[in-house]
Amino acid sequence: MKSKLKALLDDDSGVSPVIGVILMVAITVILAAVIGTFVLGLGDSLNQAPQAQLEIASSAGNSDLEISHNGGDSIVAGDLRITVDGGSAQTLDNAGAGYAAEDEFSVGETAQTSIGVSGGDRIRLIHVPSESVLLDATVGS
């Protein structure tokens, strides 16, 4: 009797098929989710930040800010938010830089804004649709 009980406890021949079925079901569910995401277009709804090399400087003799676009993607002026020391934000089209909301800020352009800055102010340029920080710098004194 003891040998039959021991043989029953040591018999694990049913474990492999059960684990195999569980793994196959898991793989099927994951594949269905991935394919469904692409079919429904959920992967395309993510906004990506433009890749741009921007530089800021304070104009000599006044408190205006110069933003230079030195390379990379063009940015729609209405999509570029400017903050000074974390305070109120303005977009490039309403910061006195001469850009309309739909205009593109492209390579080689320099925008002079009427945002008042002084030495030591922290300037952040944020791409609004993606909420990505494109530039985080401090104005020299």
Break the fold down into its secondary structure elements and pairings:
Blueprint (H helix, E strand, L loop, with lengths): L1 H9 L4 H26 L11 E7 L6 E8 L2 E2 L3 E5 L4 E3 L12 E2 L4 E4 L8 E6 L4 E7 L3
Antiparallel strand pairs: 1-2, 2-7, 3-6, 4-5, 4-8, 8-9
Which features would summarize this protein structure in a list?
2 domains, three-stranded antiparallel beta sheet, 9 strands, Flagellin/pilin_N_arc, Flagellin N-terminal-like domain-containing protein, alpha+beta, transmembrane, cilium, transmembrane helix, 141 residues
Q: In terms of per-residue confidence, which ranges show pLDDT below 50 for 5 or more consecutive residues?
A: none
Share of residues in helices: 10-25%
Sheet with the most strands: spatial strand order: 5-4-8-9
Characterize the largest beta sheet: strand count, sense, and whether it forms a barrel. 4 strands, antiparallel
Write down the Rg: 29 Å
Q: Structural class from helices and strands?
A: alpha+beta
